[in-house]
Amino acid sequence: MCHSNIYSFFSCSRMVRLVNPSLSRPFPFSPRAKHSNDHLPLPSATLRHRKPPRLGNSLLTKRYIRLLILAILLAVVYLFFPLYSRSVEPIQLYYKCKPHKCTRNPDLVLLPPPYPPTSPPTQNQREGFPPLFEQWIEHERSYWQHAEDDGTTKFVYMRNHVFASGWGNALQEMILNTHLAYLSGRSFVFDNYTWDRSPLDYSSFNGKVTASRVPVSAMLAGPIIGGTFDSPHPDPLFPNAHSQPHPPSVSSEYYEHVCSNQTRVILDTDKLHKSVGNWDGEQNLRVFVDYLRSFSERCIEFELDAEHVFNIWMFGSPDFLTLWPSLSQSPILQQFTYSPLILAAYERNRHFFELPSLPNQNQYSDTTALNEAYASTPDSDLLMSSSRLKKHLYNITTIPLLPSSRLTLPLVPLERLSSLYPHAPASPSLKDTIPGLVVLHIRRGDFEGHCENLIEWRASFHAFNSFEDMRERDGFDAGEAGGGSMNPSGGEPVEPKVPSYHRPSSSSSSSLSSSSMELEPSEESFLTWILSWLGFGPSQSEKDLAWETYRANLTAYASAKEDYRVKKEKYENAKGKYLERCFPDIEQMVRRVRRVREDVAEATAAKAAVDGDGKGSDTAPLTRLYMMTNGKPPFLDELKAALQADSEAQAQTTPSSSSSPSSPHRLPPWESIHTSRDLMHGHGERQGGGGGGLGGLGWEEQYVAQTLDIYVAQRAEVFVGNGFSSLTANVVMLRRAHGVEGVKTRLW
Hints:
By secondary structure, this protein is an alpha/beta fold. It contains 25 helices and 20 strands.
């Protein structure tokens, strides 16, 4: 989002700098500026009953008045019912429900712009600015729950959510915050993915222009961003938390409006964290749930500058996993859903990931349904009628939210996405695995410096990369790796200078030990003696003092140099172990990928032996490779070549001579190797005669491509990630929540 490469956000934890005003034009203010009340319903007015005014004498008799009224009613019925059948019938299907008790899924999602574009580039696009996702912002404003306030829903707003951080950090926090709101019975107040809190639309990162905010609905759908909650799964930690249907999430803009005249409770997290005294996930979650439930006020928010509810110390501690039994059953993960913008990008580029279609099969689906969806008009009438219908049925007196006329893209029910994008399920499960695909998460760029910082912090893997079976197979022990070692500062100690009137004897040892060092007058000592005799040089006592000082400094130098050597050796040893797991080089990655393929082959063979059918699991041959990475093209080209060469060598090696004697399996060579860079620009051949779409990413898609990578990694047959990465942790969470075998979710 900072640039055309979404990965420029990795390890973004520095302060934000605003864009230089010397850019080609001033930055417009955001259509969703903080505390903006644009497009929001007006406060409810108190209704007063008044006597109707008396009519004057009428020229019509009562009989004619009654006939006229009957004729008007018949005309209204005649004219209304055709309109009703067109505009209200979908509402009856998707919106006819009491607040929080919908019998059918009311979720509508916004289809992305067609690709290739059918309209000319916008001014922002022509001038090289990132997209502002105005259509998605307008779509969030027109959510059905924003149409009125039932007066009873309670909210919790994590105003202190992360900003100026990578999408992986923001997503993991949003998942946990939404789950906390769910357990506490409060509507979660969602906000944009925020890079810069300023009201300006644009900011900068590493000298490149980036959007200050991106609406989450451009990347995700479902309960985390306003969708309907399904019936809850049993929660082993909080069995009584879901006795009532849960209210949907609302936008921060709507919260500011509804709570403008309400008593707001402002919370700080520090005292709650201190009351627990550790980073145990279940204990901290339970304390916050109980605390939020203790308030009767509708509007609760966390102070803007308060510590995050779920902070980096929790995410870095294996003890945090004690909340997993609850989180794994949460609708936040069970209904985790991607936006049509992500699904469309996958559908159009799936030749990068999927096995070639059979010759008699079309790689791409029938696009009739999608073309019809784009040909339809925006459903603003549906949304307006929805609000009017619910007002009439449930006597809600607030004025409904007016959907913007700027919403020009079509809206479709979430449940229809499977027909529009048949190869890109919005909520992928285990049965939606992409056969034969291996995805690697490779962090490059400035991440090497971050990995070196991890050594001094004595950091271990991210909590969600530290499940017990993962620790047994791919675990990392910070203590054994030398975590906590400090890179000696100030450089290597400097040897003290010998006084000018002394020099080492030719027979002395080269050792730095002062006991073996002998000095005798140097060649310049005669001049020094003459100057001293004339009273200009140092006295004998001063010479003796200088010599004693030198001997003391020499002893200290010898000790400091030895200490430096030991510390440097320990640090370099720790650095090597950390970088192998955090920032592996090409040789290490090639070796690791080979080992993972062997492990999967062995697990498949073992399962086949147990089942007795000779088939094992449904694992397809691992022949396609995709790298989600921010690496530069020359590095990626070298890595591709090394991986391809190793796979071809393994394919020609007999099992007995394999690099891993315990693996008797011959591994097939890679049929395709692609990277995020290829996807960004549409590089790569189509296979299987597929047509029906262009590769590459559209303007908006380029700035949310990291979410597309998460989607692909979640569905991959095998995933190899970075144990220190929050983005990897999100993929691991999603794969584990849907039952992917542990041997297929690995770490460097």
